[in-house]
Amino acid sequence: MIARKAPYVFLIGIVLLTVGSSYYATGVGTSFSQEDFLPPAEVSDTLQSLPEPFAPSEYTVTETTNFLEDNFASAEDDTVTIYARGPIDADYALESIQTANRNPPDSFVSSNRRADTQSIITVIDDYAAASPEFRRLVDRNDVDDDGVPDDNLKQIYDALLSSPYRAQALEYITEDYTSTQVVYTVEADADQGEITADARDVAERYRLTATATGSTVVFQQISDTILASAIQSLIVALVATALFLLLVYYVLEGRASLGLVNLAPIVVSVALLAGSMRLFGIPFNSLTATILAIALGLGIDYSVHIVHRFTDEYALTGDVFRALDRTVIGTGGALTGSMLTTASGIGVLVLAIFPVLGQFGVLIALTVVYSYVTSLIVTPSVVVLWERLAVDTSATTTGTATANGDD
Known about the structure:
The protein has 15 helices and 6 strands. The chain is α+β, with helices and mostly antiparallel strands. The two termini are 43 Å apart.
């Protein structure tokens, strides 16, 4: 038994593993996408061989989406929007937009080092191509001859809003000329986080007060919020669980420190689970973000059974190693059966057609396995450390108090 031969060296290794796994887990991706809820493009042979009515149907939506992404620079809805506020009739307004579009980031679709956009400039160009009179107005006010007017923008906007292109123009500017939006086309296969970061960088180029928005940016913000919420809920759950365990063991056993012993393997299993998410490429999304708090709730049962059985055996034998032997042999067998049935039962979700359900099933199964393993392997060494620190210290304190009383 590790707890008998080298508990302290083992615990040092466990601490390093927990810290390393936690640090590695900081790179876990976040996503919030409709693709999480779409069936895979190709169903595995295992699922296809299932008899009716369990065999999956034929799905084409994901295959179509992948075709669009593979064969076109951008598919439908692959855009971000820069919303800008300020005097857009100022001489610098359109030039600011034009300048921001130069040398776009890699996630933006571009041509000749200019971003592919739809904006009020696009509407001006379209109307100028259809109306020679409006073209002359634009040319007269294009000081640097780059196709974008610099002067008398209010006059140009007034002419535009009085033309048949009024509806198109109002898609990009407001009638009071205080705000505008520019729609950028982005690469279909670009990462959501990369697109969001690039959109915010482009917004910083504007002389107007600009903000990056659009479905991609909003979904990324939702993902970041989900991750922050998951971490906050985990911290709250850990603190609440620790306080509850301290109180319970103080009331039942008179030894509150056993609550920390109970919590130690759960902290290790949660860290391993978070690291496994990055290792297996499972992101935090609308469903998997709940897994850390669930891991705490599922895993605590295993260590509770181990610690509670140990306290009973320790009270009978008075020897920590004999108590641990009886605990692991007796309770360990029951926990093994519980682990196998729970992990296999909920792990069936890995066969689900929808990827997000499969990921959830894998994580729940890993949670159960990690909790079981850490309860049987980590807890004994923590108990030995507890016995050396808490019990020996208590005995020393009691002996000192008795000696002082005799004096």
